[in-house]
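ESCALATION

Customer reports they have been waiting on this structure for their group meeting. Please prioritize. Original submission:
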Amino acid sequence: MILEKEYFRSRAVEYARKYALVRNPLFYTFEGIGGNCTNFVSQCVLAGSCVMNFMPIYGWFYLSSNRRAPAWTGVEFFYNFMTTNQDVGPYGRVVALAEAEIGDVIQLQNQDDVYYHTLIISEIRNGEVYICANSVDSLDRPLSSYDYKSLRVIHIEKIRYDTRYIIDCFESLLNPPIPPIEEAEQNATDENEGESPSPISGT
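Update from on-call: job pushed to the front of the queue and completed.
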C-alpha cells in the first residue's frame, strides 16, 4: 500500500549544515566531474524523507557512483523528478520564493538560460533566505550574495512510501559508522574498479 508522510524539514537542514563543508563518506563526491551540488541536495532531501525511488532511469536513488539515477546528481533531472513524481519518494511543485520553507530546494539559472546550480534552504530570517550547498561549499550563505539571472524554488510537498518498506534512515545517514581500515581500503578498490558497495541500500 502506498501512503504519504510529512517531509522532515528540520532533518534535511540538520544534514545540510553538517555536510555543507565536509563530505559524507557514504556518497561519492562528483567535484571536478560535473559538480557535487545536486548530489549534496539529494542527500539532504533523503535525510528528510528516507525514501528513494528505484525506477530505472527515471527514478531518484543512489547505491553507488555507478548505480544511481540521473535525478540524483543532475540539475534538470532532479527538477523533472521532483515536479512530476507520481510514485514513491518525495514530490514537489514550483513556488514563488516568498512561499519557500526551510528544506526546500532552489535552482539558479545563468545568463545562457541554463539551470546550473542546486541549493537547499537552511534558514529564512528577516526577509533573507540562507542556503547550504556544495560546489562552491556554502553554510548558511545569503542567497542575495549569488549572481544569477533567475531562479526556481522546488517546494517539497510530501513523501509517498510503500508500507512494506518503512525505514528511518536519518541517524545512520547523519552519523554513518566508520568502517574498519581494511573495509575502507576495499571500498576504495571497488570504486576504482567501477563497482561500489551499497552503504545505504534499502533506504
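Sent to customer with the following note: The two ends are 17 Å apart (CA to CA).
Escalation resolved.
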